[in-house]
Amino acid sequence: MLSYTYNVLTVLTGLILKVIAPFHHKIGLFVRGRKTVFSTLKQHIAKGDRVIWFHTASLGEFEQGLPVIEKIKASYPHHKILITFFSPSGYEVRKDSRAGHIITYLPLDTRKNVSTFLSLAHPELAVFVKYEFWPNYLKGLGKRDIPTVLISGIFRKNQLFFKSYGAFMRQSLHAFKHFFVQDKDSAQLLNSIGINRVTVSGDTRMDRVEKILQRDNTLNFMENFKGEHLCFVAGSTWPEDEDLLITLINKAPETVKFVIAPHNIKAVHNTALQKSISKKTVLYSSMTLGELDEAQILIVDTIGLLTKIYHYADIAYVGGAVGSTGLHNILEPAVFGIPVVIGSNFDKFKEARDLVKLGGVYTISDIGQLKAIFLQLIENKEVRLKKGEINRNYIKKNAGAVIRILEYLRIYIKV
């Protein structure tokens, strides 16, 4: 009965999204992007091709899976790497990535879509990153005896799998040959429902951010902007973050430079943000060398630079956890050995829970807390360095998940 209800609701959802698509930009991308999936697969995957399929829900999961994807691609050059996204937030940003040979959306989880997708893609191995457990896809993979593995998985006791009424979703988990999870709590939850094919391997993002330190992170404009000043970098900010930051910045001493890299890079948003700041502010898209020298605040209205900008930070603020949008990546600034400030809605993020407990990450919920932490960190270099060292050591200690995962995946990949 539950299976029938799920299938009916999935089909209805697809119809409703098509109706809404002309009036909603993101849903429009979601719907239009899926129209070409099957033709893309037909064009790029021949019957004799050997395909390894990675599914990532959105941008964060793509970044999480990337270290494994890159290693597999390099180790098995005769295979084609297929990467699918569920969300436009991931696909639209990474659709031109060289990590995969074919990058596309994942069609909705209807039985018809699943049958067509798996017939065209015919993967010899399927790897899901972190989560997204689509019952029909997993059932289809199981029926075709395609080895399926979850990497960097994270489970919480409030998920449907662990409820008395969650049998339908629990059945989906049995399609996986193995689970590589981030922590012992996730392993114990899986064990509690009779799933023991579990390895606590850690988070593959630790390996990815470790590699950041091996590259050239120099940015000439940041060299000019920062100079000899302390630098506070606020990355992936949302309006609720920016409301707090504007109040802080407008009363901050001139000895500190600020970089804001908003999540929304549309001109109308960043022009309004610039006007709300009383200090000398410059937009990255229109800056000149003279303006950089004079400005105290730089608004980065483009994508792709934030990770390197963190290299210049003495303090980082990461957005998304003041409101309910979801915390962005705190590991990218943490790897540079700097203290990080976030909002108080971080419970779903293991690395945030760990680092708040260890003391390398501060949490705030109002401007008073943000001001107090800011003053402590700019005035006390010893505290600043100590907090940053906690973050750096956490990443070093927890790297190595990729090696453990690759050793297992090789069992299912024919050379």
Task: Present the secondary structure layout.
Blueprint: H1 2-20, H2 25-34, H3 37-44, E1 51-56, H4 59-75, E2 80-85, H5 88-94, E3 102-105, H6 111-121, E4 123-129, H7 135-143, E5 148-153, H8 167-173, E6 178-181, H9 184-192, E7 198-200, H10 204-212, H11 220-226, E8 230-237, H12 239-250, E9 256-262, H13 267-276, E10 281-283, H14 289-294, E11 297-299, H15 306-310, E12 315-318, H16 331-334, E13 340-343, H17 350-358, E14 361-364, H18 367-379, H19 381-398, H20 401-409
Parallel strand pairs: 1-2, 1-4, 2-3, 4-5, 5-6, 6-7, 8-9, 8-12, 9-11, 10-11, 12-13, 13-14
Detailed description of the structure:
The protein has helices at residues 2-20, 25-34, 37-44, 59-75, 88-94, 111-121, 135-143, 167-173, 184-192, 204-212, 220-226, 239-250, 267-276, 289-294, 306-310, 331-334, 350-358, 367-379, 381-398, 401-409, and strands at 51-56, 80-85, 102-105, 123-129, 148-153, 178-181, 198-200, 230-237, 256-262, 281-283, 297-299, 315-318, 340-343, 361-364. The chain is an alpha/beta fold and 415 residues long. It has two domains: 2-202 and 400-412, Rossmann fold (3-Layer(aba) Sandwich); 215-398, 3-Layer(aba) Sandwich (Rossmann fold). Strand 8, helix 12 and strand 9 form a beta-alpha-beta unit. Helix 4 (59-75) packs across helix 10 (204-212). It is globular, with a radius of gyration of 23 Å. The model has no long low-confidence stretch (mean pLDDT 94).
